[in-house]
Design a protein that fits this description.
Elements: E1 8-9, E2 12-13, E3 22-24, E4 32-34, H1 39-58
Antiparallel strand pairs: 1-2, 3-4
Length: 60
C-alpha cells in the first residue's frame, strides 16, 4: 500500500485502510515514516515532542 502514490500527500503518508503505524517511505532507502491517517501517529508524535521539551528543562 505504501507504494501507491495516491496515499502520499507530499512527504506524508495517509491511508486509513493501512493498519500499520510506521511504514517505509516511497523510496525505502530513505527510511520510514508515520501513517498520519492513524490517530496513534499524532499521539506518538506528541509524546516525542513532549519528551524533547521535558529533557530541555530537566537535564540542563
Amino acid at each position: 500500500m505504501s507504494k501507491d502514490l495516491a496515499n502520499w500527500r507530499g512527504p506524508f503518508y495517509l491511508n486509513r485502510k493501512d493498519p500499520r503505524l510506521i511504514v517505509p517511505k516511497y523510496d525505502p532507502t530513505m527510511g520510514w515514516t508515520l501513517n498520519f491517517a492513524s490517530p496513534y501517529a499524532y499521539l506518538g508524535f506528541l509524546l516525542i515532542v513532549l519528551i524533547i521539551i521535558a529533557s530541555e528543562y530537566f537535564f540542563l
